[in-house]
Amino acid sequence: MAKKLVIKVTAGQDAPERCSQAFTVAAVGVASGAQVSLWLTGQSAWFALPGRAAQFELPHSAPLEDLLAAVLESGTVTLCSQCAARRDITEQDVRPGVRIAGAQLFVQEVLADDVQALVY
């Protein structure tokens, strides 16, 4: 059984290097065979919407859209329910494959056996 990697990213356009690092680690985790769960919180919540990741630019980094697509293909992407509510984002608004869930599920994932958790 693959190890699980739970990554919570709070940064978006406001802290592009931290944001890019979180998505890069998530995509590399997927490529390495880890079971990846990427949580979008705070300013990264906007990347749950179609087209938003494609607008992100950071020199010398992989396109955020490609990194997110890799995680969506083989991992789980979750938008924080409170973050979604504060931004008036609903299930109908998010890109395919993104779920909306709250702190209870995040804690459940982090406390599971064989889990590594990272916060950016």
From TrEMBL:
Pfam families: DsrE (PF02635). It comes from Actinocrinis puniceicyclus. InterPro entries: DsrEFH-like, Sulphur_relay_DsrE/F-like. This is DsrE family protein. The lineage of its organism: Bacteria, Bacillati, Actinomycetota, Actinomycetes, Catenulisporales.
